[in-house]
Q: What sequence folds into this?
């Protein structure tokens, strides 16, 4: 079992291991599985890279992210310029249906709205703009409205999660209500929680996933 100092060290090393972050100064504190990230970076991509690296560390139960983005003084870009680049990035991504996503930019913060049939398209829309210069943050308000008329079967979702080698489904409970899938229970890493949610989102006919899985690394060692 990791104490606070060990978890802090593991997260720090995970962040340092990412090539994009070698020059970034990220502060890490850890207490009872809750990790706080602080510091200043010069791109949204670095902020996301630090967050994703921390999530993958075993023992992290929750993440509080307070990383600031500050661009060089010589760098300036208007909201209109950023909006045009975001639209171009979305149009060039084959996973994002054209003319289905609307964009708003305010002081570097991008808000995405619209309706798409699949969650992977929603995630692709956000990923398409993560590396654009001038972007300070992204609010992804895109809603999923599946075009499939098939009823969601609980057994199908359970079997899909069970097929994944990276997810221990022994303590994952699946419930279905209309077009909504709810996941409850326990997993031993944040990665497993997100992966179980991602698999559930692949279900034909789905509109919503309530991922209520709890993360507890230590439960895996309890007989």
A:
């Amino acid at each position: 079992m990791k104490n606070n100092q060990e978890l802090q060290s593991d997260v720090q090393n995970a962040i340092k291991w990412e090539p994009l972050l070698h020059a970034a100064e990220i502060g890490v504190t850890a207490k009872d599985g809750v990790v706080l990230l602080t510091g200043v970076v010069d791109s949204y991509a670095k902020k996301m890279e630090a967050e994703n690296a921390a999530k993958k560390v075993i023992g992290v139960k929750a993440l509080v992210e307070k990383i600031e983005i500050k661009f060089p003084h010589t760098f300036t870009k208007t909201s209109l310029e950023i909006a045009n680049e975001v639209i171009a990035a979305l149009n060039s991504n084959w996973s994002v249906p054209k003319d289905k996503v609307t964009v708003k930019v305010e002081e570097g913060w991008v808000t995405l709205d619209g309706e798409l049939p699949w969650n992977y398209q929603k995630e692709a829309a956000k990923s398409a703009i993560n590396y654009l210069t001038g972007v300070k943050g992204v609010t992804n308000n895109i809603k999923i409205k599946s075009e499939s008329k098939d009823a969601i079967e609980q057994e199908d979702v359970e079997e899909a999660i069970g097929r994944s080698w990276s997810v221990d489904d022994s303590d994952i409970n699946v419930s279905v209500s209309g077009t909504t899938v709810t996941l409850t229970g326990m997993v031993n890493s944040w990665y497993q929680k997100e992966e179980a949610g991602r698999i559930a989102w692949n279900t034909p006919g789905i509109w919503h996933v309530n991922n209520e899985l709890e993360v507890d690394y230590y439960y895996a060692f309890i007989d």
